[in-house]
Amino acid sequence: MAVEPPGTEPCHLRSRMEAEKDAAEPPGTEPEADRGGDGDPQYAIETTIPLRWRDLDPYGHVNNAVYLTYLEQARDEAITRLLREALGEVGYVLARVAIDYRRELRQVDGPVVVSCRFGTLGGASIATRETIRTAAGDLAAEAEAVVVKFDRETRRSQRWTDAERIAFLAAGARPRE
Q: Which residues contact 22 (CB under 8 A, 6 or more apart)?
């Protein structure tokens, strides 16, 4: 986990102004979610992650599998922050992940900023849109994931509670039609 300077948090809800600034980037650099896909940019939750020496492969760039670790860390942080007010422990599992690699990441590109937005909300699932950007703001990867609420005792999916659904909807998720 990253050590942040005193008085700062690595994860925060972005303002509409920050989202509009990102939307003004040249065509082809904005994440799919900003082009009408799942997840409202106004509600992106960001996590800053340092690039560690162990993340690099013999080519001197971050190994492709490590991108998935960055996405997982940010997704977990986003869900934890969002549902921290919900009663009880929330367990969930990853049901789907798809990633498009846009550029290599090298040590000099860090730390990376991973953004997570909530999309379609199902009875027991939530879709996310995620991006990885360099410290300079260059898009390195974009991904889609689906997580499913999971009951550890029954080993089966479990419906989101009303409090959890309200939290997701307040963070820009849309109910499945």
A: 30, 34, 41
pLDDT at 60: 93
Map out the domains of the chain with their CATH numbers: 11-175 (3.10.129.10)
Query: Which residues lie below 8 Å from residue 151, measured CB to CB, with a gap of 6+?
Result: 91, 157, 158
- Read off φ and ψ for residue 104, nearest 5 degrees: -75, 155
* Contact indicator for 106, 60 with CB cutoff of 8 Å: yes
- Closest-CA residue to 144 (of 104, 95, 111): 95
Residue 124 in contact with residue 149, Cβ under 8 Å? yes
Bridge partners of residue 45, in order along the sequence: 13, 116
* pLDDT tens, position by position, 38-92: 556 678 999 999 999 999 999 999 999 999 999 999 999 999 999 987 756 778 9
Distance CA 84, CA 65 (A): 29
Residues constituting the chain: 177
